Amino acid sequence: MTYNIALQFEDGVSRVIPCESGELLADAAYRFKINIPLDCRDGACGTCKCHCESGTYAMSNYIEDALTEDEAAAGYVLTCQMRPTSDCVVRIPASSAACKTEVASHGGKISSITRDSATTVSFSVQAERPLSFLPGQYVNLQVPGSKETRSYSFSSAPNQTELSFLIRDVPDGLMSSYMRHKANTGDFLMYTGPYGSFYLRPVVRPVLMLAGGTGLAPFLSMLRWLKDNPVTQPILLAYGVNTKDDLVELGTLAELKAVMPNFDFFTSVVDPSSGHPRLGYVTSHLGAAQLHDGEVDIYVCGPPPMVDGVRSWMAGVGVTPRNFLFEKFSSTNEKVSS
């Protein structure tokens, strides 16, 4: 049995490595030339202490000076003593450079491109091999004919050869102009990653997803992954846009709802002349019930004013969610996650 272990470094870089059944995580990482900081290898010094965010594992012998009982109960592990028994996400308290690993580079050809929306472009890239990432993460795509890159979240599920993206058509934007006017199927794209701390955590309580515009992309990735890995907790997506033309992927969302009994979504449009049944920002159509008395994980992806608006809404409701994870993006798609 082989397990996929996602190593999350503190500089936002991710590496997904295979770990054989019974293999120590530190040894698996070393096989791939990733040097997780460690000294003793005996569970005595605590140098290789990391946090396992999800997954199951067995721990060999260690002393409490290296890992206390409370730390172990909170999911902290010593990678020199940790043997994964499932796929895991492990946060490494060091940069990728400190662990002597590099950002992975990839390439692939554009397999499809859709310009049906006046404000967005969707496209897919046929990768050379299946790409492992955490649903919600992004890559940096190099704009053909330049050395510039732009950051875009996957809208496809992990571990596939066809990678999909949904991007905003920014007027005079470098990547937007290429995708709108020049790109053709068969064009080759280079990209690096995956990156990002905005990704789906284990679903152990209700989930509220708030998407603004093309901030829908990472949620499509999460939902597509959840379709194949069902959970029982309720999941609600609130998808808001400025104009009616900005609404995309409604058919995809309807298809997901049809096969995911615990998933629901609604849309809202800011433009009062749109005729949309829900006008204004998504928070105008949410209430305390969607916060489940704080027993909820909230994910937000959209422009900075949206993220700030959600914070204000939560303060006004007077309920603090168990987890609040967000990703802001600007017109150049620079991402800030937390």
TrEMBL record:
Its cofactor is [2Fe-2S] cluster; FAD. The keyword Cell wall biogenesis/degradation does not apply. Residues 103-201 form the FAD-binding FR-type domain. CDD domains: BenDO_FAD_NAD, fer2. Keywords: 2Fe-2S, Dioxygenase, Iron, Iron-sulfur, Metal-binding, Oxidoreductase. GO terms for molecular function: 2 iron, 2 sulfur cluster binding; dioxygenase activity. InterPro entries: 2Fe-2S_ferredoxin-like_sf (IPR036010), 2Fe-2S_ferredoxin-type (IPR001041), 2Fe2S_fd_BS (IPR006058), BenC-like_FAD_NAD-bd (IPR047683), Beta-grasp_dom_sf (IPR012675), Cbr1-like_FAD-bd_dom (IPR008333), FAD-bd_FR_type (IPR017927), Flavoprot_Pyr_Nucl_cyt_Rdtase (IPR001709). PROSITE patterns: 2FE2S_FER_1, 2FE2S_FER_2, FAD_FR. Residues 3-96 form the 2Fe-2S ferredoxin-type domain. Pfam families: FAD_binding_6 (PF00970), Fer2 (PF00111), NAD_binding_1 (PF00175). NCBIfam families: BenC (NF040810). This is Ring-hydroxylating dioxygenase ferredoxin reductase family protein. It comes from Zoogloea dura.
